[in-house]
Every structure is written in C-alpha cells, then in structure tokens.
Amino acid sequence: MTSADRSRQELLTEIEELRFRLEEAEETLRAIGSGEVDAFVVSGRDGEQVFTLKGADEPYRVLVETMNEGAATLAADGTVLYCNNRLAAMLDVPQERIVGSQLGSYLAPGDGDLFTTLLQSGAPKCSSNTGTLVTPALNSLPVLISSCTLELSGSTVLSVVVTDLSQNKRNEEIIASEGLARSIIEQAGEAIIVCDGDGEIIRASRSAHRLCDGNPLLRQFDDLFQLRMANPGALFSVLQPLSGATLENVEVEFKRPDAKDFYLLLNATPLKSAQDKVIGGVVILTDITERRQAEEALRESDLRYRA
Fold this sequence. Notes:
- By secondary structure, the chain is an alpha+beta fold.
- It has helices spanning 3-34, 58-66, 85-91, 95-98, 109-121, 166-187, 206-212, 221-224, 239-242, 289-306; strands spanning 39-44, 47-52, 70-74, 80-83, 126-134, 140-152, 155-164, 191-196, 201-204, 227-229, 247-255, 261-272, 278-287.
- Among the domains are: 67-164, Beta-Lactamase (2-Layer Sandwich), CATH 3.30.450.20; 187-295, PAS domain (Beta-Lactamase), CATH 3.30.450.
C-alpha cells in the first residue's frame, strides 16, 4: 500500500468517525429535547464530566406540587392520571389511591353526575363550576373546579384545578349572619341599643332613633339617654351591664330635650365574646307610656268616684 493509499484510508476512517460522532450528537440532542435523559457525559482535557439536565418544565412541576390548590390530570373518561399533594390532602386520601380512580366519585352525587355529563358531552375548552368534594369520612368541602382540555402525547386530557372555598363560605355566612342581626335590630318594635365597651352606641334600631328624635350612633349612651328609675329614683347607667350586671323589666322615665316624657321598660344585659369576655352591652327599651297614662287616668277616675 502506497503512502497515498494510506492517507486516503486515514481520511475515510476519520470521516466515518466524524459521521458517527455527528449521529451520536444528534441523537443526544433529540433525547435532551424530548426529556428522555436527565444527564449526559462530556469528555475533555480534564476527563469525563457529567452534566445534569433541568428541563424547562421543572419550575412548573415544583409549582404544581407546592401550590395551595388541588391539581389533577384526567383521561377523557374522568380517570385520574395524576394529582398533586394538595388535592390528596383535600380529599384526605393517599395520592396512589386517587390515581386510577374517577374524580367524579369524590364529588357530591349531584355534582358528580354533572361532572360526568360534561365529560361525556364534550365540555368547553375551559370552564369553571362550583361543587362539593366528599371525603371517605363523609366530610364536605365546597370547591371551585376549573378545567381545560389539552392535547398531551397525541391524546386529549383534562387539566383540573380545585380551589378550596370553605373559608369563603365561612366569610359569607358571617356576613349573612351580621346582615340578619342588623336587619332584626333595625326593624324591631323596641328600641334596641348596642354599646361597645366604652359605652358608645354602635347599633340602634329605628325605634331607638325615634325615641331620641335623632341619630344615636357613635354617641355616649349615658349622655343621650338619661333614664331615671322609679325605684330608687337613681339614673340608670350603661356601666351596669358593662360591668356584668343584668337588669330585667325595670321601669324608667325618659325626658327628652323637647320636654316630651316617655315611660319605658328597661332590660339590659352585658354583650360577651366567644371567650365569655364582656365586650359591650345591649339595652332594650319598650315604650309603655300609653299604658302608664291609661293606668294614671284610671287611678284618677277611681279617686273621683270614691270622693
């Protein structure tokens, strides 16, 4: 073999090695791009070095696993293909038991039927519906279920996010209860007055407004309502219920600044917190002026008759 033949053979060998290395690099890039490898080895002057790969989807995986909402991926028939830790905690069921089950089986009967119907009829690309999750211990959890259809590896799947609405429901109930209590106070026939711990009026019924002939809110009770008790003739003070005392059916006289007199039946109780601490006082004043006037007229009539 001549020198020229050897050079030609060396070139062919080198070309073949380069072709092999190119194919190997292309295959590595394909595997990296498809997420099939987590690390690769590079040879250099300092020997072989291992480089780990962190795909672009890693931040999303971490986000899904640590977010406060439940998350799941469902097959077209509603079978759970994946769920995060939060959804498992909401259902109080281990993740491995949820995967492979029907998400609809964890919904209240009516909600489960609706969810199944949406799946079978081809739900909109994205939708949101409120519902109720039911745990194996039969605890109910109001939730908002947001779902979107997407293509994954050639198949249509459903991405679901479940938001716990229990705190929202509690807030709504508190607001509703507060609204109901305010409505009862405002429309009561008696003058109902609620004071804070300093004796300032913070709630008052319409009858209380009429009784004082003005707006009593944010005024000191004792300054506005000087109520003289028939026995022993002393003035009532809201400090009595604020100190824990209860007064029942005490007759008092109220002389308004316009010189109009009222006879009232007073009931006063302390207002306590859930921890049984006095945080204010409630005073209820029932107008008995007409009854007292009728009694006095009858008494005068009896005296005239006896005379």
